[in-house]
Protein backbone atom coordinates (compact mmCIF):
# COMPACT_ATOMS: atom_id res chain seq x y z
CA UNK A 1 0.00 0.00 0.00
CA UNK A 2 2.80 2.40 -0.80
CA UNK A 3 1.61 5.93 -1.16
CA UNK A 4 -1.87 5.04 0.05
CA UNK A 5 -3.60 7.28 2.53
CA UNK A 6 -6.15 5.92 4.93
CA UNK A 7 -8.67 7.71 7.10
CA UNK A 8 -10.34 5.91 9.97
CA UNK A 9 -13.57 7.57 11.04
CA UNK A 10 -15.22 6.39 14.20
CA UNK A 11 -18.32 7.14 16.23
CA UNK A 12 -17.71 7.06 19.96
CA UNK A 13 -21.06 5.75 21.22
CA UNK A 14 -19.61 2.73 23.04
CA UNK A 15 -16.04 3.57 24.02
CA UNK A 16 -14.92 -0.02 24.69
CA UNK A 17 -16.18 -1.26 21.32
CA UNK A 18 -14.77 1.76 19.47
CA UNK A 19 -11.37 1.23 21.14
CA UNK A 20 -11.30 -2.44 20.12
CA UNK A 21 -12.32 -1.68 16.54
CA UNK A 22 -9.72 1.07 16.23
CA UNK A 23 -7.02 -1.19 17.65
CA UNK A 24 -7.91 -3.92 15.15
CA UNK A 25 -8.03 -1.53 12.21
CA UNK A 26 -4.66 0.04 13.01
CA UNK A 27 -3.09 -3.40 13.55
CA UNK A 28 -4.37 -4.59 10.17
CA UNK A 29 -3.07 -1.46 8.43
CA UNK A 30 0.30 -1.76 10.15
CA UNK A 31 0.57 -5.42 9.12
CA UNK A 32 -0.33 -4.53 5.53
CA UNK A 33 2.44 -1.96 5.48
Give a quick set of tags describing it.
single chain, 33 residues, mainly alpha
Describe the structure.
The protein is mostly helical and 33 residues long. The chain has one domain (1-33). 55% of the residues lie in helices and 0% in strands. The chain has one helix and no strands. The protein has one helix at residues 15-32. The longest helix is centred in the C-terminal third of the chain and has 18 residues, at 15-32. The chain is elongated and about 35 Å long.
Give the helix/strand layout.
Blueprint: H1 15-32
What is this entry, summarized?
With 33 residues, this protein is mainly alpha-helical. It has one helix at residues 15-32.
- Element-level helix/strand string: H
| Poorly predicted residue ranges | none
Strand content: under 5%
Rounded mean pLDDT score? 91
Radius of gyration over alpha carbons? 11 Å
- How can the largest sheet be summarized? none
What number of domains?
A: 1
- Secondary structure category: mainly alpha
Q: Compute the number of strand runs.
A: 0
Helix content: 40-55%
Spatial separation of the terminal alpha carbons: 6 Å
Total helix count? 1
Shape: elongated
